[in-house]
Prior knowledge:
Elements: E1 8-9, E2 12-13, H1 18-22, E3 29-33, E4 38-41, E5 45-48, E6 52-65, E7 69-72, E8 75-85, E9 94-96, E10 102-106, E11 109-112, E12 125-126, E13 134-138, E14 141-143, E15 163-166, E16 176-180, E17 183-186, E18 192-195, E19 201-205, E20 209-212, E21 220-224, E22 227-230, E23 238-241, E24 247-252, E25 255-258, E26 263-267, E27 275-280, E28 284-287, E29 292-296, E30 309-313, E31 318-321, E32 330-333
Parallel strand pairs: 3-6, 4-6, 5-7, 6-8, 7-9, 8-10, 8-11, 9-12, 10-13, 11-14, 13-16, 14-17, 15-18, 16-19, 17-20, 19-21, 20-22, 21-24, 22-25, 23-26, 24-27, 25-28, 26-29, 27-30, 28-31, 29-32
Antiparallel strand pairs: 1-2
Amino acid sequence: YYKFFSSKVDGYDNTKNALDAAFADGKTSATITLIADVSGVKADVVIEKGKTLVIDGVSNLSFTTNYGLRVNGGTLTVKNLDIKIADGSDQPIGGILGNGGTLTFEGCNITTVGKFNRKDNGLIFSNTTADGTSLNLKGCSIRLGNEGTWLNQTNDDGSAKVRSLFANFQNKQNVTCNFDNTDIDISANKNLKLFSSGYGILKVTNGSVIKTANSIGNLDITVSDSTLEATEAGVNLFDYSNYSSKIDIKATNANLTSKANVFYFTDTMERTRTMNVTIDGASVVTAGNRLLNFLGWDSKAPDNNPIKVNVTIGGTTQLKWQCTGEDNSVYACGK
């Protein structure tokens, strides 16, 4: 047993601790089982390449910190914890550094306590430039408070900056973010979106519920037995404008809801390659404006419609158009 989780704890430095002991004597794999709440950790936990660590809170003990749980080529699994980003923190709780790796949170509740002062994207999770990276949330929930400087940043024109819960994958598509039976509700945070860009593969499965006040724009999305909802008026659920990459969305037994358009694609620069949408099983698609809105034209040659769209709707899918906007539920202008 160790009294301290790591060597950097408020009031103590370089003490005997569980984290150092986990990899002592050349060990490359370990599990730290917590028997009490943890707080006051003063440094990131970083698991390097070739190492594997499991941190298990067993009965959802609390882990309160201003620092992060990160991988840099290694594998880190964090289980059964109430993770609290401490008052005044300016760091995300999870991070995947330049060497990539696998970062998994399982059975964790993640919240902010008091003021959260991060100024960059990736408020909760920052991601990597490395291919093959995997970020996994299983049986987790995320809630972010409306206190702190992250909420009060403005653009040059005085408008509020929109930040992201997850940082982008920096132009890398061979990275995966898995939401398995995970509950993320950022619908009350109007200047917060899920991801800062469309890169990476997003999989939402097994009863996950995602509610957001802003659109989702990942290039490769799979939704299975889960719910995605854009809650704000005028906000499309899936929104893509002038993307230069192929877009694939697959939904099975999914509930997809928007007060505006559920699927919204537009291209005025003849850049978009192909947009593929497949909806199957017992899915329910509900829209206030349009269910499907595909609009493409070349601004230099208006008669040319460059968007290429393939839509397949099968199973017992229900399309629910609430007629609160346009006078048609499906609009397509393209090839």
